[in-house]
């Protein structure tokens, strides 16, 4: 089990310290898939960064398999089986796709490169490409996801994997994340997509730096869906799929 216990996170912004996460308590069990959702800026990626050791929490603990891992570095956590596909993957001039995948496969065999094929990229077309601005947004995102699939860690966090992925490939993406999950893994998907929220065991709703709801999809999804507000941000009443009394 992976858990965050009373986790708080403050970050420096100029002269000021601002609160990003406040008293976050959440458990992730082995063998389960989780979706973290919530408004933009609510703290979803920050939760992922605390789990990965990219951000050091200001208070509380991160525990994994009974141990407090709060002091482990990013590299030590990666060695312990943690992997993260970034929301905005970095580009590296001079590094090729094959270098990244080879490291992720722990110097395994690149010849079949299922991880790229599974995500809709033909290895023949991509292995020699440089990880620079010549790759499109969707391509770099797919390569990031393929790298995490190749790494095959025990704790996997996909941060908005659907972002920039075309409609035709979205089903394939969901399928490959679902089928690569197994009873030894914890899979966490940060997402705004209804289809992803409906494929997981539990949904975690992050609002304003805290966990507002956590529970099964059947329990949480209707509450999220029905709490959506009208685009005009007034309290318009929803009737079926429309906001019937919206003045605009
Ligand atoms: N390095 C940083 N320094 C200062 N503030 C930060 C930093 N990283 C994140 N923040 C702030 O923390 C808050 C939470 O950011 P976070 O990226 O976790 O949000 P999110 O829920 O993932 O949003 P989104 O849906 O847009 O990806 C935001 O207000 C953001 O501006
Ligand atoms: Mg984010």
Structure description:
With 248 residues, this protein is α/β, with parallel strands linked by helices. It has one domain: Rossmann fold. It contains nine helices and 14 strands. It has helices at 44-52, 74-79, 97-104, 114-117, 123-126, 137-151, 167-180, 194-197, 217-226; strands spanning 2-13, 16-28, 33-37, 59-64, 67-68, 82-85, 92-96, 130-131, 155-159, 186-190, 202-207, 210-216, 238-239, 242-243. A hairpin with a 2-residue loop joins strand 1 and strand 2 (16-28). Helix 3 runs parallel beside helix 6 (137-151). The longest helix has 15 residues, at 137-151. The structure holds adenosine-5'-triphosphate and magnesium ion (MG). The site of adenosine-5'-triphosphate (ATP) has 12 residues, from strand 1 and helix 1.
Sum this structure up briefly.
The protein has 248 residues and is α/β, with parallel strands linked by helices. It is 30% helix and 31% strand. It is built from 9 helices and 14 strands.
For this entry, give a set of tags:
alpha/beta, Rossmann fold, 6-stranded mixed beta sheet, 14 strands, binds adenosine-5'-triphosphate, binds magnesium ion
What is the topology?
Layout: E1 2-13, E2 16-28, E3 33-37, H1 44-52, E4 59-64, E5 67-68, H2 74-79, E6 82-85, E7 92-96, H3 97-104, H4 114-117, H5 123-126, E8 130-131, H6 137-151, E9 155-159, H7 167-180, E10 186-190, H8 194-197, E11 202-207, E12 210-216, H9 217-226, E13 238-239, E14 242-243
Parallel strand pairs: 3-10, 3-11, 6-9, 9-10
Antiparallel strand pairs: 1-2, 1-4, 4-5, 7-8, 11-12, 13-14
The structure holds adenosine-5'-triphosphate and magnesium ion.
């Amino acid at each position: 089990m992976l858990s965050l216990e009373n986790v708080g996170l403050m970050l420096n912004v100029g002269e000021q310290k601002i609160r990003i996460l406040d008293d976050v308590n959440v458990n992730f069990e082995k063998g389960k898939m989780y979706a973290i959702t919530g408004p933009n800026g609510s703290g979803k990626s920050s939760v992922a960064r605390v789990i990965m050791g990219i951000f050091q929490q200001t208070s509380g603990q991160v525990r994994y398999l009974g141990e407090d891992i709060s002091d482990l570095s990013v590299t030590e956590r990666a060695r312990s089986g943690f992997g993260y596909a970034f929301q905005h993957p970095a580009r590296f001039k001079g590094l090729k796709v094959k270098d990244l995948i080879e490291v992720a496969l722990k110097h395994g065999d690149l010849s079949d490169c299922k991880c790229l094929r599974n995500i809709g990229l033909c290895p023949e077309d991509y292995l020699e490409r440089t990880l620079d601005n010549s790759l499109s947004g969707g391509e770099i995102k797919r390569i990031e996801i393929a790298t995490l699939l190749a790494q095959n860690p025990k704790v996997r966090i996909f941060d908005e994997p659907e972002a920039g992925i075309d409609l035709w490939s979205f089903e394939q993406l969901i399928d490959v994340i679902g089928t690569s999950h197994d009873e030894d893994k914890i899979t966490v998907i940060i997402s705004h997509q209804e289809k992803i929220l409906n494929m997981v065991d539990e949904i975690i709703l992050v609002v304003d730096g805290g966990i507002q709801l956590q529970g099964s999809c059947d329990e949480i999804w209707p509450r999220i869906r029905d709490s959506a507000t009208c685009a005009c941000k007034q309290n318009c009443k929803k009737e079926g799929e429309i906001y019937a009394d919206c003045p605009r």
